């Protein structure tokens, strides 16, 4: 027996003209999803290109430490900004996000700069010999004690 509504007319469900559109979405919403997908793929391709550039850059400037670190940090910041801007949807947030990101960035910079003296003034001890000293020291192998069966 067919289900009927209060007006005694048969209950029918309208099917969309296009088979891939969900019932609860409009055509505009579906197109918006498709445009976001292409945007995400473009951002992903950009991240992949930056990763390849970092690899090549590291091989080119492996002997110039300051230039290497500066260039790699710049590319890492650009990649992090791309991830945050598009994949974390910060692009669509209001100005209040900057009120959180800017102080956090300043504090992170202060912490890194505050730790530089610890790296530069690290004492060299006998536990950390230079490469030449480590190669010149000969250690006699220890004698293996005999196995006693009881």
Q: Short summary of the structure?
A:
This protein has helices at 27-60, 65-87, 96-120, 131-136. The protein has 150 residues and is an all-alpha fold.
Please explain how this structure is put together.
The chain is mostly helical and about 150 residues long. It has a domain at about 25-90. Helices cover about 60% and strands about 0% of the residues. It has helices spanning about 25-60, 65-85, 95-120, 130-135. Helix 1 (about 25-60) runs antiparallel to helix 2 (about 65-85). The longest helix has about 35 residues, at about 25-60. It starts with about 25 loop residues before the first helix and ends in a 14-residue tail after the last helix.
Distance between the termini: 91 Å
Strand content range: under 5%
Largest beta-sheet characterization: none
Percentage of residues in helical conformation: 55-70%
Q: Please, what is the average pLDDT?
A: 77
Over all CA atoms, what is the radius of gyration?
32 Å
Structural class: mainly alpha
Tell me the overall shape: elongated
Topology, number of strands: 0
SSE arrangement, N to C: HHHH
Low-confidence stretches: none
Q: Supply the number of helical segments.
A: 4
